From TrEMBL:
Entry keyword Disulfide bond: no
Protein name: Alpha-ketoglutarate-dependent dioxygenase AlkB
Species in which this protein is naturally found: Nocardiopsis tropica
Alphabetical keyword list: Dioxygenase, Iron, Metal-binding, Oxidoreductase
InterPro entries: Alkb, AlkB-like, AlkB-like_sf, Oxoglu/Fe-dep_dioxygenase_dom
Alphabetized Gene3D superfamilies for the sequence: Alpha-ketoglutarate-dependent dioxygenase AlkB-like
Amino acid sequence: PPVEVAPGAVHLPGWLDGDAQADLVRRCRDWARGPAGMRRHPMPRGGVMSVQMVGLGWHWQPYSYSRTLPDGTPVRPFPSVLADLAARAVGAAYGAPPGPGADPYDVALVNFYDADARMGMHQDRDELSREPVVSLSLGDTCVFRFGNTETRTRPYTDVELRSGDLFVFGGPSRMAYHGVPRTRPGTAPPSLGLAGRLNITVRASGLEG
Ligand code: MD3
Ligand code: FE
């Protein structure tokens, strides 16, 4: 059953069945390959992110979107399977799919967490659109920290995200601070054959071209 963690933030545990999870893991392995594949992004003030990422439709790197990687490699196309999944996810979370006037879902970020990867508290503000962000978790369980819109500190709520969980962040939750303080290595469903955690976020960039 959907759990509204905060206004507009809806958690649907176990939304993807085992077959759907396995299908997405297989697709992620494909998207991760090649010159436009998964990498650790450099941070503008030094260091690299511990999470590995690949963008589909748009390349995201702290803190902007572009159609190419820094070396000019074109980004992978945004797959229609994720557009369909995002529309179904919004419908499942809010009781109605995106309306005809909604900005189209046109970008997905696929994040991979090895046992040591973490994501610090941040807001997602590089999209011009305020359409809800759709998040799908695969593999290892993580501790997801859902905060407030004012500060990157307390108050926040820690939620365990497990393989197959859907989380949709819209309305006032769209600009909330959030992060992943840790994963729980070795907790992935054995049938997935995945050592680590994958998270797919599907977004509307609101960008042109
Ligand atoms: C709340 N990813 O890619 S997913 C990210 O698990 C990101 O990899 C985390 O934060 C992960 O930016 C968290 C849940 C999530 C994603 C986007 C959000 C929560 C969000 C955007 C706005 C508010
Ligand atoms: Fe985020």
